[in-house]
Every structure is written in C-alpha cells, then in structure tokens.
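Moderator note: this is an archived Q&A kept for reference. The question asked for a predicted structure of one protein chain; the sequence and the answer are reproduced below.
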Amino acid sequence: MCFSVIAGRHTTIADAVIMGVNNDWPGSPGQVHHKPHKRYDKADTFLTVKGIKIPQVPETYAYTHTVCDYETGTRALSWADGMNENQVAVGMMGVYTFHNAQGDNDLLEADDISILILERGKTARQAIQMIGELIDEYGYSVSSIEGGEGAVTLAISDPKEGFFLELVPGGLWVAKRVADDEIECRPNCFGTQEVDFTDSENFMYSANLRSYAIEHNLYDGSLDDESKPFNFSKIFGQGPNISEAFGGTDRAVNQLRRYNCVNRLCGLEHDPSAYIYKGKPNNKLSVADIMSLLGDTFEGTPYDLSIQQQAGHGKNPLWMEVSHSIGQGGTVFSMVFEFFNNENLKDAPKNLQACMWIALAASKLSCYIPFYIVVSDIPKPYQLALTGDYDLDSAWWAFQEVGQLCYRNYEVIAKELVIPKFNQLQHKFFAQQQSLHQELATLDNNERRKRLTEFTHDSAMQAYKEALRLGKYIKGKYLSNTIVEWL
C-alpha cells in the first residue's frame, strides 16, 4: 500500500509545489539509483514489462528513483518513484478495487508508465498528455506484480502544477489538477470525484471515458448532455476486492488515511467516510510539514493507534500490518519532492536546487536524506538491498533494523532514543542546506554541482553511519527484555 499528497504552489512557503509519497510494501527491500540522460538511434526500443518492444524516443532524461527488489515481468526491480532532470516527479499508489475493462491487446503496466514519465516528462502536464497518447496506442493493463494485480493512481508534479492520474485497465483514465491554494491526497483507491469535461485546465481524460461508461451502463447520462455529474471514483472504483487488506474507497484503511491528511493539514473535522481528499491548509507549508504528515500515526487523536491493546506496554503505534494511519511500519521509502523555481541564481540551471528527500524506513523512526537531482552518482550503500539478504552494508537494511528494534520497547527506544537522534540529524541537514543554498549564489555552475554532490554524499553517509551506530547500541543495551543500565 502507498500514499501521496500534493501541496499546490500557493500553499507552500517556497511558492512551489511540494509532493510527498510513501511506498509501503512490507518485505520488499528498496534501492536508490540514478539513470543518466541518453540519446538513441531510430532502431532503439523501450522494453515493456510484458516483454514487448515499443519505439524509443530520440533522447531520455536523467532521473533519480527508488525501486523495490521485486521482479515484475521483464523488470528485476519494480515500483519506481522518482524525479527527473526537468523536475517532473512521479509516485505510485496501487488500487485494488476497480472496474476492469482490460482487453487482450492492452500492453502497458504501471511499472512501464512511471519509467516512461521519468524518461520522457518535460512538465507534469506534458507527461500526462504523453502517457495518454501511449495508452491510446498500446492500451493499459493490470499490474503483473505477484499478489498485487491491481490498477494504479499516480501523483505527477513539477514546480508549478501537481496532478493525480487515475488509470482503469482497458485504457480509461482521468487526470485531476490540484488547485494552487489546496492540498490533495490519495491512499490506495481512486479519489477523483466529479469530472468537469469543459475544464481543460484542471481535467484531462481519455476520449472514450464517458461513452464507455454509458455503453456499459455505469453512468446514466448522455453524450449530448454534460449537466449530469460524472463521478469517476464512484463509476470506476467499484468491483471485486483484489486485496482484502486495502480494498476500495470505503475501507477504513483508505477512509482514515485521507481523513488523517486533511484533518492534520487543513483542520477539517468530519466523518472519515466522507469522500474528502482535499482542503485549504491552515498555514503555509514547508518540506518539514509534509515529512511530518507522512509519518503521522494519529497520536493524540481519537484514532490513536498507540493506545490500542495491540500496541503493547511500549505503546507502539506501528503495530498494525496494514495501518489506518499515513505512517506505516512497512514503509520501504518515504519521499518528499522539493521543487526549485528560483530565478535569483543567474545563469544557473532551473533544476539546480531540486531535491528528492528520501527516508529508508517508517519516516517516524528514520530521517530524510537529501538527494539532489543534479547528482549523478548515488552512494553505494543506498544502491544495495536484496530480498531476504540481511546485510548491513546496505543503508536500507540498516535503517529498517533500527525501526524494527524500536518495537522491543517503543516508549523508551523510539521516543527517548531513536526519534530524538534522527530529529536532531534532520534539523542539521536543514540548517546545512540553508547555508549551502546561500553559498551557491556565489559559485559558477561546476562548483555548484560539486558542492551539491558533496552535500548529498556527506548527508547520506552520515545518516547511514548513525543508523548503524543506533542499531548496534540498541541491540547491546536492550537485549530481549533486559535493559543493560550501564550502557
């Protein structure tokens, strides 16, 4: 399961979109990689998940992305979320209750589409139009991920605009723009309500969306009359429950997570069963605000998971295998995309300070590490993580171990040790980033890239070493139910 939130540009302190994504896939280790800008010959092709080749474009853009060590069709690594050199970012949320219109010739899958967006996206809007054209030509099918054969909602953003693109197998889709003065979220379900077919600024959609719904008795309007509301989520979000865990719009896991978001950021008090995915935030938002949201576990609210009997004497709010809160114990990666749209740096690339902040475990028990998208080499420990291969040479395993060790006594280990230590490191990264951005204005482009690379590498290695240190210390001090008091 996954979750995403997009903050419209006028809701943020920086006056640029901020996008947050949780990739929650328990048991699937994660890796971070960078792909370079490439040029191709006319004969070159793009290999799809199903093993069918489609024509490649003349050039693809560089991008940094996270992936899971899980084979899907032709891909050894699955579920790519990331940002490219044009500051087009994508995050995926699986959808497991939906109308399935798939035919024999539908080709593209979710794991194709996220890569195509990263490789070919110039802006968020252009990326959606491009994907729509490819779906028109090649079709769209359910994922062939074992145990997760669902549809998908994608969060797609750039510095100025953010969209949620919702895909129905069979090539039916809608993209809804997030208002500049609102935040909007998606858990594991379709969430687009009424589609305004006359509003091309805020909606894009497949050409046959209404006609298909009418033909298959999913909608009782007519092509000649656009006055009857067309609720995309209600029309196409119904069907068999592929996953009993995260179901559709009316499952508690999706109801409470959308409520969790709009209640926390916008102060909205309402019945969680209401289909409310958006609102106007109470205050201007920062990257830190979105990070905090992505780790939220309802503590201090009527839905507080730490006060349930299952939370144990340590009051662990991450005890559920599939949690009703945004913060999850099974998070593979939590990511916040910080877009850059500052004209003050003369002659500097527009993407210079765009940053993909990545936490490698439940973000409540981790910290976010800055990966600047102009940095072409990823520290080796972050590229390593294999399923079932516990390996502390891997940063992912080191952070995951710390998170799991917190469950021995969450009240003491997490709240008194891990959370304060990682919060301290997070504040240090923010302070260093602020100083670095001031320094960049005095440097030429080569020096700017060098300094951003140094900061990315130094931050990544410092966080990794702290995770290793914490893991070793916790295992020594909190052995089983015994606490070694002199450590």
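Archived answer notes: The first strand starts at residue 2 and ends at 7.
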